[in-house]
Amino acid sequence: xxxxxxxxxxxxxxxxxxxxxxxxxxxxxxxxxxxxxxxxxxxxxxxxxxxxxxxxxxxxxxxxxxxxxxxxxxxxxxxxxxxxxxxxxxxxxxxxxxxxxxxxxxxxxxxxxxxxxxxxxxxxxxxxxxxxxxxxxxxxxxxxxxxxxxxxxxxxxxxxxxxxxxxxxxxxxxxxxxxxxxxxxxxxxxxxxxxxxxxxxxxxxxxxxxxxxxxxxxxxxxxxxxxxxxxx
Length: 232
Ligand code: C5P
Prior knowledge:
The protein has helices at 14-21, 35-41, 43-51, 66-76, 91-102, 123-130, 136-149, 159-169, 196-202, 211-214, 219-230, and strands spanning 4-8, 30-33, 56-62, 83-87, 111-115, 154-156, 174-177, 206-209. It has 232 residues and is an alpha/beta fold. Strands 1-2-3-4-5-6-7-8 form an 8-stranded parallel β-barrel, surrounded by 6 helices. Bound molecules: cytidine-5'-monophosphate.
């Protein structure tokens, strides 16, 4: 899989999701299904979107004891998604168990990506609530290295961190980066943003784009603009 634009389908129902996806009559976007849609509609939504010809990033961010995560991943592997994820904070043992669970009998598996520190966690909340007293950049890079050692394929990170992650973990370690905005668009609640062209320049492998596409007056045109800036 090469560079691609992943559209965050942050909708509350299958109806809204299909009303949105029906607009795409040409190129079928790579779709991110998050907790809201998955918990509302269950595994059927994954199968239906897959059957329409989309690649899928199932963003459920698993985090539990290794045995539980392994068994959950063994269920998810049958959904035939392309990418799924977990929290690196679950430790290397949990990440290794997840990989075992995710690997099918023929040896194939979806790509497995780690979330490091959520972008909603800042230095202060990490120190006060989690008692982690190192600089947050160092914590993110350490979690990325642990994910690499455990055999995972990459991490979710800010596009601003993608270059450093590649320096630390190698060029082939995938960086999936949300926080993307058009130069002339609304930033909304995202704090540290980049344009698709800048994310390409810095070496992101995949960009995750939600509202700049889902809330655009012409979502297909906004998607095509992202693809033109990031992929071509
Ligand atoms: O609408 P917007 O482009 O901000 O959507 C970004 C998507 O990426 C959302 O689904 C959001 O939950 C997700 N995400 C993020 N920042 C992270 C991890 C995931 O914005 N650190």
